[in-house]
Amino acid sequence: MRQSVEIKKILAEGKIGDTLSVNGWVRTKRASKNVAFINLNDGSTLHNIQVVVDVNKFDREILDQITTGAAIAAEGELVESKGAGQNVELVAGKIHLYGAADPAKYPLQPKKHSLEFLREIAHLRFRTNTFGAITRLRHAMIFAVHKFFNDRGFYNIHTPIITGSDAEGAGEMFRVSILDPKNPPLTEDGKVNFREDFFGKETNLTVSGQLEAELAALAMTKVYTFGPTFRAENSNTKRHLAEFWMIEPEVAFFDIDNNMDLAEEMLKYLVHYALEHCRDDLDFLNKRLQDEEKNLKKEERQMELIEKLNFVLENKFERITYTTAIEVLKNSKSNKKGKFHYPVKEWGMDLQSEHERYLVEKHYKKPVIITDYPRDIKAFYMKQNDDGKTVRGMDVLFPQIGEIIGGSQREEEYDRLYARIQEMGIDEKTLWWFLDTRRFGSVPHSGFGLGFERLMLFVTGMGNIRDVIPFPRTPQNAEF
Length: 480
Ligand code: 4AD
Ligand code: MG
Description:
alpha+beta, five-stranded mixed β-barrel, 2 domains, eight-stranded mixed beta sheet, CATH 2.40.50.140, 14 helices, binds 4-amino-1,4-dioxobutan-2-aminium adenosine-5'-monophosphate, binds magnesium ion, BirA Bifunctional Protein, domain 2
């Protein structure tokens, strides 16, 4: 066989009369007495190439094994396609069967499978149109993130995955230990003696790369991390994973307004990039969502995917304070009619995603950035406002998703930061290096974290975060 050509390239550039070879997995095969039509996909594009086979020219036994899921190579000539949807098809001169897929056992049949079922066979779901599209989009977004920052002079920093500090102070961490769980060494007062553990202290998987990104920003000015983060919160929602990827820029000499500008610019850039480079896959996902929702009442339907992406591009994000948000929510019809699961009663409460979505979808009808949250519901590192009550935090809220970004201006004054650490009962010994940067050449600085899978939910229009990462980790689930 010749060197194979990828299907995307053949469908875009192939000329009638070209002789070439193609590899892929069979999506469907239709056969009549003399001719068989094989639809082949290699992951390079949503579209399949049709391979036409004169069944009398090939070994019957081999042909019979070419069924949905089988891997083959086909070599032949490109001819004009009479079928709809493609310009060319391949008339096979040679066929090689790499691996058969016994139809009695192969779980992926050419019909619509539920997303729940596909989660159980996540090792095979890449072979569906939906997960092929999501996989290509995920790659495009990863690439676009790096391009966005590179084009703006940011440096990518690898921050540690194993850490001895709790960046968010929420205590929802996975322990990293080599001690024998049945018989751990104990201290004199009967506690586990982590001095004898691998690192000589208690360590966990990181919940955020922010603290180390701050160290780098206070020398390199503009940096970002893009790494895996881990949270042991027991939330079984459609928007939470125990292992997810986070993009965290951190910029010296940036205040909260600069930070909001960067967040808005980045989100618009990424959405625009998807529309520009992944149109086929987006159109497919758009249609998928329409099909899924066609039996819903009009008011229960989401915005169409493409419309929703344009909604982000076309609107200036509304910037409001937490105090304003609470006023709007408190006086809303939904609140007065008792429609919120968590009624909005007083200043100080944490906002739930139902509140965030109300602000975006019903009230402002555009993406919203909320700033100046009560300090008691936010992390220790946020810059304290002079009112003594609020901090310079910011959350960016999107339709369907709610919070997509969380960030803040950071407390750069040593005394205030130290006091806050004490007040919150955080062990300052785990943060001496973080405090040190406030003693030497400290400057105002800001940053934020974009949850990559939240972005993917938005861009693909998928409803469950388990479907936008290849192998999701959630409570009671770490298969594959
Ligand atoms: O708001 P969070 O907790 O902020 C931080 O971790 C900061 N250290 C970021 C920073 O300022 N550098 O998380 C940031 C984002 C959220 O807005 C959300 O998009 C996503 O991370 N996120 C999750 N995504 C999936 N599953 C989870 N369990 C998530 N928790 C947070
Ligand atoms: Mg947050």
